[in-house]
Amino acid sequence: MERKAPPGRPSYKIASIPADGIGPEVVSAGIQVLTTLAQALDEFDLNFEHFDWGSAYYREHGRYLPDDALERLKGCNAILFGAVGAPDIPDHISLWGLRLAICQPLQQYANVRPTRILRGISSPLSNCSRKDLDWVIVRENSEGEYAGHGGTSHLNEAWSVATEVSIFTRHGVERIMRFAFEMARSRPRKKLTIVTKSNAQRNGMVFWDLCAVKIAAEYPDVHWDKMLVDAMTTRMVLHPETIDTVVATNLHADILSDLAAALAGSIGIAPTSNLDPTGANPSMFEPIHGSAFDITGKGIANPVGTFWSSAEMLAWLGHREAANLLMESVENVTETGIKTLDLGGNNKTVEVTERVCQEIERLVKEKKG
User: Fold this and answer.
1) Of 290, 232, 293, 286, whose CA–CA distance to 259 is shortest?
2) Which of 320, 325, 318 is nearest to 78 (CA)?
3) Which residues, at least 6 apart from 164, have a Cβ–Cβ distance to it below 8 Å?
């Protein structure tokens, strides 16, 4: 599920949007690691263009993005995103003003969240080994519960009404199902779990199920099953070894992937890819941990989620070997006990970053002989 690198010596323009909270800290760490990797391998070039879009920009301009933001992003090969959200701005304004304002118009409809237990990190699940928890959660990223349809009337009156309408289109559901089946097919176990809630949501979720059955017929080599979302949370905790690839709606996958990250050790290690599988628009890569204002400026933010997201970006651009080398470096470091507070360690963001950079240089030197 990745693209081929162009011939010759590739050069990529990467949009950097650190945004809010710990976003600037972890994006800076990610750029440092990516730059070290690119220079050590000497196989491709990465050029970063920095954008100051975030809550500070919103306070100054009354909006999160300038009018030409999307066109400027379309001139990039990929986007490295930090986090959005600030204590003084309602979350629905910041989320819809920046992140969703990029994902939806750029047709980044496939949100991919891999989860596994990295070396040196323990799961809170007793007796859960690395081989028991190695998942990919595919989240529909363009419609569903986050389609933005609905409204509020008679606000502050006793008869106030608010509606939030989930939108499921055949086009949207079938394309994410096909993407998920392709993802499952590309993995050794060729297994897909389709998450639903059609026992209670008898329109949109029943439609989701019907589309799933139709697309499944195209993939006879993929074993698939269906789980209600509430039962899926139990299965993730009690029987993680039975899960491989998962596809779920915008809301359900959002929740399940946070649980998955916690079960793998910390939400601080979890990556996200927001993909336009057609390649018509740049895809966006980000850690899932959010802006985390409670630890902003303390130098203890976990950069691993950004490192992993950066590796996913390299793989998407067609540099799987470089991506693997980056993740090997990260796991070699975590295995030695170099970890931030959320993982039970006492190392600062800068210490983890420097150690990963050193390990990249060591591995590349070893690789080159």
Assistant:
1) 232
2) 318
3) 145, 149, 150
Nearest to 22 by CA among 328, 336, 267: 267
Question: Within 10 A of 190 (CB to CB), how many other CB atoms are there?
Answer: 16
Distance (Å, whole) CA 102 – CA 213: 31
- Best CATH choice for the domain 11-108+282-368 from the list 3.55.30.10, 3.40.50.970, 3.60.150.10, 3.40.718.10: 3.40.718.10
CATH superfamily of 123-149+164-264: Isopropylmalate Dehydrogenase (3.40.718.10)
Helix axis angle, 23-41 to 320-335, nearest 10°: 120
- Cα–Cα nearest to 137, from 249, 236, 257: 257
Q: For residue 286, what are the β-bridge partners? A: 272
Domain 11-108+282-368 shares a fold with domain 123-149+164-264:
yes
Given this model, what pLDDT does residue 223 score?
98
Please enumerate in sequence order all residues whose Cβ is within 8 A of that of 238, keeping only pairs 6 or more positions apart, or say none.
none
**CA-based nearest residue to 108, from 306, 280, 308:** 280
Domain ranges of the chain: 11-108+282-368, 123-149+164-264
Tokens linked to 193:
């779990």
Residues contacting residue 228 through CB under 8 Å, at least 6 positions apart:
195, 196, 197, 198, 199
Say if CB 156 and CB 188 are below 8 A apart. Answer: no
Residue entry with tokens 């379309």 = 74
Q: DSSP letter string over 336-354?
A: TT---GGGT----HHHHHH
How does DSSP assign 215-255, residue by residue? Answer: HHTT-TTSEEEEEEHHHHHHHHHH-GGG--EEEE-HHHHHH
pTM of the entire structure?
0.95
Compute the CA torsion angle 290, 291, 294, 297 (nearest 10 deg).
Answer: 130
Q: Report the C-alpha gap between 55 and 85 in whole angstroms.
A: 7
CA–chain centroid gap for 2, Å, is 15
Q: What is the pLDDT of residue 7?
A: 76
Mean pLDDT by 10 residues, the chain (369 residues): 76 97 97 98 96 96 97 98 95 93 96 97 92 97 94 95 96 98 98 97 96 98 98 97 98 97 96 97 96 94 98 97 98 97 95 98 91
